[in-house]
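CORE FACILITY INTAKE
Project code: CF-77B
Contact: R.S. (postdoc)
Sample description: multi-component assembly, two entities in total
Requested service: structural model of the whole complex
Turnaround: standard
Below are the sequence entries exactly as provided by the requester. Do not edit them.
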Amino acid sequence: MFSQASHNSRVTPVDPVAGSPELLVRISELIEDLSADHVDLLKAFHRIQHEFGYLPHEAVPLLAGKFRTTPAIIFGTIDFYSEVRTAPAAETTVEWCSGPACLLKGSLNIRRALEAILECEMNRTSSNGNFGLRLVQCDGTCHLAPLVRQDGRYIGPLTVSESIEWARRLKGEDGAVQTEGEGAPAEEESSQTAQKVESE
Amino acid sequence: MTLPTYKEMWQQADEVWTRTARAARTLIKVGVATCSRVVGAEETLETLRREVQARRLDADVMLTGCLGLCYAEPLVEVIRPNVPGILYQLMTADKVASLLETAVAADGNAREHALAVMGDKEFGGLPALGSLEFMRGQVRRLMANCGVTDPESIDHYLARGGYEGLVGALRLKPVEVIDEVKKSGLWGRGGAAFSTGLKWEFLYNAKRKPKYLICNADEGDPGSFVNRNLMESDPQLLVEGMIIGGYATEADKGCIYIRDEYPLPVERMELAVAQARERGLVGEGILGSDFSFELEVVRGAGSYVCGDETGLLSSLEDRRGMPKIKPPFPAQAGVFAMPSNINNVESYTNVPLIMRHGADWWAEMGSEKHKGTKMFSLSGQIQRVGILEVPLGTPTSDVVMRMGGGPPKGRKLKAVQPGGPLSGVIPASDVDIPLEPDPYRERGVLMGSGGLVILDDTNCIVDLCVYFEWFAEDESCGRCTTCFAGTRRMLEILRRISSGRGRLADLELIKLLGSIAQNANCFHGQGAPTAVMSMFRFFEGELLEHVERKRCPAKVCRGLVRYEVLHHSDRLPAAEAICPTNAVVRDNGTYRIDQLKCIKCDACREQAPYAIAVVDEFAPA
């Protein structure tokens, strides 16, 4: 809808790129109706990320061509936004809320415990590739503080002990494997701050 | 295709609304918004729909927005014919069956789940919603539809007086609309508190076309979620506000920039814009006039500085969202170098109310200098987390201590952070000041966008400042050295202090960094040291305790405390079992903590609170 082209000097050579032809065709299809200077780059990121779960690096030259700019500028833009991921997510991603409400209620303790149990640093993937820990920003669900999210499910309010037990179940220790809607041990259900596990 | 006139539209909408809200059968409303969705409101809605059908009950189930009582979500309201609606709290899907049995089928009240009766009068022994501490003193103008209408239905909005303001505005000249907004005294709700009418006049006076009207819904301040609630509970209000703004400033295109972390508001705003377009309220020749206005929803991708007005402009221009250098101001050269105006969600949503009821009615509320109402969100160490709307000038203590219920039982209020990590904090002794920009500014604090985060005596101010500085550093765009390097340096110094290696010279360094930061281009850099400066002003004693005596009074700072087994207790085996790093060690039947392994996660103390204690790392024994 925005139609004021103001960057006429931006000319982009589209590099021949490595990567499977199917992937390139699919990406081209996704961004076909978009154009430069129409507030479309963010839309392109979201579409590609929605399709593949991340933004493959093969998309960069295509985007640069589409948006009449250089791959470097596209890289810079991707790098700027924290919600645009450039690598596939781990099988299970645990998202840790960094917001102030969680912080004041002890989320740093939970972070230390999760990092120790999942053997994984924040914003990294564990060495076996099974778990990823990701730092996310507050989205105002502060009545659940301190909370973690697992693949879109919100879990909170958590005590450190609860988060440790939860992470161990997630990892498959203690015998039991966590599945949705069950697996909460009896003692936890009886406690005042029982886990509230719901799907998004 | 001929588009319906406003009157036809209203009549049709009124029929729809009457059919649902004043029907002779029971109406069950389920509030589904981000805050209730995470505790299972969607399952509740689905289960209710399924069960009502399965039990062949004479009842309708309706989706609605959020009332703002986050602490009691999911909320279900049951309205039986000729009886005021009863609000049931914490209604997860498993409680649906018992609710239907007692409250709908058997014509009684599910008393154990009931929270209140809608309205101001008590009924059947249940308190009125308006008499709850959380609600008493609130003035719900912006939130009038929140939790009452279906946010996904434009008819509900129309039937309750929606778009009346637009019809009124279209009868006036654009300048007259601006005058009305100016007369009301509405100022920008995003934090800068600049007059909205004046800002609109700048854009109106700009000559070049096309002009852009942009809504800043990139509510990035962690701990504030008022815009989110408005967008997902009453999206049409923002659409109407944007259209009126477009008319008043003669803008051609509108754009609502919503942050990536808010998927539901994006969904609902897109739907609202599509519905408005269907009715001819967005697009060519709005309501038969010759005014045309396009509206689009843009989803961000996770960046805090895109909430700065020029950062947002850069983001719209397919680039890194780095704030631009002013001047030129957006009204001269904004998005794509064209005249633009940027306002917060709350600023736009106030305009339909001003146009509908008049500036005088609108200005009845509020204090001498600051008119109108303002929404605030409460989070942190508070009993009732939620969203509320109060007249400006309401004492902060009234909102925090009475409506919010104050910190959890047995704890004392320590400080209030009024709006975002760049806003600073006020101490508990100042909590009586009115909620309006001036008293906060006198204390070197910015009232900001209205996300009140409450600290109690278990929280450490240095720890909080480390967080704020980390946040500022993490989200810095990288343009100004004073910001990207200054915040990093500040973070290093604060981390040094919180780990016990602080020295007195650091205090001077921090102050120096704080004054250098004022040279940054945008408010992100300038505001970065605000919290640290408030710490100097109000909590110097606590800071000195960290630096001089290497002690954290609240026992939070990781480098200044250690865990020790002080007594024996039966809970110690549980502590040993929970420890994620096997740092609780048993030697010949007695327990001790292996300090090299301990990561200070507090789990063992939770398990054995009597036996294990947090002690000062450097204090004399």
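Facility notes:
- The mean pLDDT of chain B is 93.
- Chain B has five domains: 7-131, 163-361, 373-456, 461-548, 558-616.
Invoice: internal transfer
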